[in-house]
Amino acid sequence: MEIIYLGLGSNTGTREQYLKDAQTRLSEKIVITSCSTIYETEPLNCLPQTNFLNMVIEARTELSPPDLLAFTQKVEKEMGRSQNSHNQPRLIDIDILLYGQKRLNTPTLTIPHPHLTERAFVMLPLVELAADFIYPGSRSSLSDLLEELPPGQSIRPFSYLPEDSRDDYDDDEENE
Ligand SMILES: Nc1ncnc2c1ncn2[C@@H]1O[C@H](COP(=O)(O)OP(=O)(O)OP(=O)(O)O)[C@@H](O)[C@H]1O
Ligand SMILES: Nc1nc2c(c(=O)[nH]1)N=C(CO)CN2
C-alpha cells in the first residue's frame, strides 16, 4: 500500500458538502487515513471568482498512479464537474499531490503535482498532515518548503468558523 496525498478544492455551490461528498466517493477505492483542516482561500491564477475551500487528505492505496488518476477523474465527472473547466468555477477539483517518493512525468500525469510547492492552499494543509515528509528527489521536508513560500496568498482556516456564519455560495439556486 502506498501513501498518497490528494488536494481537494471547490469554489461553487455547497462547497463544504462537495468536499465531504468527494471523500465518501474516494473511500470506495482508497483508504483515507487523515484529513487536514479546511481552508478558505482566494483564487490564485484564475479569473476573479468565489473563494475556494481547499483541503488535503492522506490515504493508502494499491492503485497505480495512472489508475489513481483515472479514479479521481471518474469521481470528478460523477460529481458533475464539467469537462472544460479551466478558469471556470470548480464544483470539485482533485489533484494527486504526492505518491510516496515516486516521481513521474508523463503527458497526462506529473507527480509530485507540478504546482505543489508554489501554492499556500496546498502547502499549508499538507504540512499539517506531513511536515516531515521529504519532498521526492530532494533533502527538504515539506515544512522546509513551506518556509520558502513567498507570503501574500490569502488563506484562513474555515473549519473554525461557526457553522451558521459560513457562507453557502449556492449559485445554482435562485435566491429571491
Ligand atoms: N498530479 C496530477 N494530478 C491531477 N491531474 C494531473 C496531475 N498531473 C497532470 N495532471 C493532468 O492535468 C490535467 C488538467 O487537470 P485540471 O483540470 O484539474 O487542471 P487545473 O485544475 O486547471 O490546473 P492545476 O493542474 O494547476 O490544478 C488532467 O487532465 C491531468 O491529466
Ligand atoms: N485558491 C485556489 N486557487 C486555485 C485553485 C484552488 O484550488 N484554490 N485551483 C486552481 C486550478 O486547479 C487555480 N486556482
Automatic annotation (TrEMBL):
Region (Disordered) location: 152-176
Compositional bias (Acidic residues): 165-176
Keyword Plastid listed: no
Molecular function per GO: 2-amino-4-hydroxy-6-hydroxymethyldihydropteridine diphosphokinase activity; ATP binding; kinase activity
Transmembrane region(s): none
Class of this enzyme: transferase
GO biological process: folic acid biosynthetic process
Keyword Cytoplasm: no
Catalysed reaction equations from the record: 6-hydroxymethyl-7,8-dihydropterin + ATP = (7,8-dihydropterin-6-yl)methyl diphosphate + AMP + H(+)
Alphabetized UniProt keyword annotations: ATP-binding, Folate biosynthesis, Kinase, Nucleotide-binding, Transferase
The enzyme's E.C. designation: 2.7.6.3
Pathway: Cofactor biosynthesis; tetrahydrofolate biosynthesis; 2-amino-4-hydroxy-6-hydroxymethyl-7,8-dihydropteridine diphosphate from 7,8-dihydroneopterin triphosphate: step 4/4
Domain 7,8-dihydro-6-hydroxymethylpterin-pyrophosphokinase: 5-130
InterPro entries per UniProt: Hppk, Hppk_sf
PANTHER family: 2-AMINO-4-HYDROXY-6-HYDROXYMETHYLDIHYDROPTERIDINE PYROPHOSPHOKINASE
UniProt-recorded name of the protein: 2-amino-4-hydroxy-6-hydroxymethyldihydropteridine diphosphokinase
Record organism: Dehalococcoides mccartyi (strain CBDB1)
Lineage: Bacteria, Bacillati, Chloroflexota, Dehalococcoidia, Dehalococcoidales
